[in-house]
Amino acid sequence: MRPECTEGAGGGGLLVPMAWMYAEYIADELLRTGDLMPPTTLEYRAGRDALALTIFLSDSSVGGPRVVARMEEWRSLTAYGTCWREWVCGRLDRLEAAAFESGGETRDPDLELAGAAWRWLEETELLAPDLDAVGPACDNPFPADEAEGPQVWTPAWQLGLPLGHLAIHLF
Question: In Å, what is the CA distance from 136 to each residue of 108, 131, 144, 145?
């Protein structure tokens, strides 16, 4: 979906990032419906941004009843063990290259917001359980100060992606 202008057909007004806003709306609705965590948390934002990127970077446009039909595609893109990070980077690189080659005077606001979301997901680290440290069961596997187990700093996308995947399953 091409950004829409606020001033008439083809005017030089402000471009509105409709595709990104719509992808973010769908992602937000999926996460709210799943009721996995409060919308005020950084983990929720990570899930919303990861889902919005998945929706935005998918090949075909999203709209109306087609959203339900696209769920399986999004579920497979966000599944554990997929190369989601590489897929996102590749898609963003292609879109940026295409925008550069088109020689437009203004930057695509949808692409700008998608890029900002990706930078936040890559650069922000959140404290999460260290799933690699979980070993065989014993009487007291964690020290008293780590009642929920050891934790590590993890890029936000690594928490947001499974959260988004789970939200799709719960929809």
Answer: 51, 12, 18, 19
